[in-house]
Amino acid sequence: MSYDLVFWKQKSNAVESPSEIHRLLMEGAKPDSLANIPVDNLLDRVRETFPGIAEDGGLVFWEGGDRGMFEVTLSPRHVHFSCRGLNADDINCLIDIAHEFECPLYDPQVDIRFA
Fold it and tell me: Which helix (H) or strand (E) holds 69?
């Protein structure tokens, strides 16, 4: 089963709903209401925590065997993890790393952005 985790840093003047921001990001837009985030630094933290992350033709992914796997899609304004079979501890670890960069979780499965 797949589970998506999406993170961004929102400016205080944002007027779009989280679902609208998510839709725009998935369409490749760069909403003005989002601040740039240091995605390279964030990805470095993920690499530290999940050794063995691979990159192939622009695709960034981690395969953890019994622990599951995730693919990473990113832009200067967001990070999106598509998780498959990932356990709750590893999911929470990704959430904690994004939180270090002031990027709260948006959970598109339930349309909730957490503070």
Answer: strand 69-75
